[in-house]
Design a protein that fits this description.
alpha/beta
Length: 312
């Protein structure tokens, strides 16, 4: 599929972001201390990129890169607070697809990605009703992925009959580590327990796509916005340091019909490559100003040398 240049006009597109998930804590990347049956099943249908990097270990700017195909100095979002994405100045995947007749929807699980960041304006529908409490730090303004899944499934059921783009974000395994059962009993209040919880939520989304009859014909990307320090270089969480544990993330790309499923790609890639990958697969031109390149160009094996960018 990488070399054939095959396109899939009007294919459904789903972008799944599992917040704070470092790639080397998944069985698909060699970790043995947690079970992720849903992501393992999905990996068998997908290209797996072994060296995928976030441009920054922060949620808002990294997601903006996913959605624009641009790096933080290009799209202008450099931190979780103090910035607003100016959608009128820059291309974005929902804007491109809306222009092609797609229904566009987003469902997020953290206050950091609330509508007022400028991301909500990109979509026809944007579900960000995360509970807030002035007596609690904003990092705790979040909701369980299972709640966000309920909203996303309802939207998908209403739009499965036509071309659609869904951006689906869950906050597990971001701290605080509060896994759902049965994973709390199995793993305790740990990062691994949160990963298992995230796997179950994403599995629920993928199963719903299968039940609607759109999984096979869809382009589905599953990734993360950044990793987690876990104390390896003195940082328990993330946002300050640029070591691999904070910026190397999982990245899976499923094509319609699961073409190329099970292929592992060692060429380094970055989150800004998602937009040009999707536009290329749909047979659409890449918008002007996008600096990312197609993931499938990297998968072809003769990709030219490049710089992978990171900032904090």
């Amino acid at each position: 599929a990488a070399s054939s240049g095959a396109t899939f006009p009007k294919a459904p597109v789903v972008l799944v972001s599992i917040d704070t998930l470092r790639s080397d804590r998944l069985p698909a990347y060699g970790w043995k201390k947690v079970k992720t049956p849903n992501l393992d099943r999905f990996a068998a249908d997908s290209y797996l990129f072994e060296k995928a990097f976030a441009p920054t270990p922060m949620t808002f700017p990294s997601h903006t890169s996913m959605l624009t195909g641009m790096l933080p100095p290009e799209h202008g979002v450099r931190n979780n607070s103090g910035f607003v994405f100016r959608s009128e100045r820059h291309p974005s995947l929902p804007k491109v697809l809306k222009g092609q007749g797609y229904a566009t929807g987003g469902a997020v699980s953290s206050y950091v990605l609330r509508r007022e960041t400028g991301l909500g304006a990109l979509f026809d529908w944007y579900e960000d009703s995360v509970p807030t409490n002035p007596d609690v730090a904003t990092v705790r303004y979040q909701r369980p992925g299972s709640v966000t899944l309920g909203f996303a499934k309802e939207w998908l059921s209403a739009h499965a009959g036509g071309p659609f783009f869904l951006f689906f974000h869950i906050f597990e395994p971001h701290r605080p580590y509060e896994p759902a059962e049965p994973f709390l009993s199995e793993y305790g209040a740990t990062y691994e327990g949160e990963i298992a919880t995230a796997d179950a939520v994403v599995g629920g989304l993928l199963d719903h796509l299968r039940a609607l009859g759109v999984y096979e014909k869809a382009i589905v990307v599953v990734t993360s916005d950044h990793g987690e320090g876990l104390g390896e270089h003195g940082e328990d969480q993330h946002s300050l340091l640029l070591y691999r544990e904070a910026i190397q993330v999982p990245l899976f790309l499923k094509l319609p019909g699961s073409r190329g499923g099970g292929t592992r790609v060692a060429t380094p890639v970055q989150l800004s490559d998602i937009l040009p990958t999707v536009t290329g697969l749909l047979g659409l031109p890449t918008p002007e100003g996008v600096s990312g390149r197609s993931l499938l160009a990297s998968a072809a094996g003769d990709a030219p040398w490049r710089v992978i960018y990171g900032e904090t």
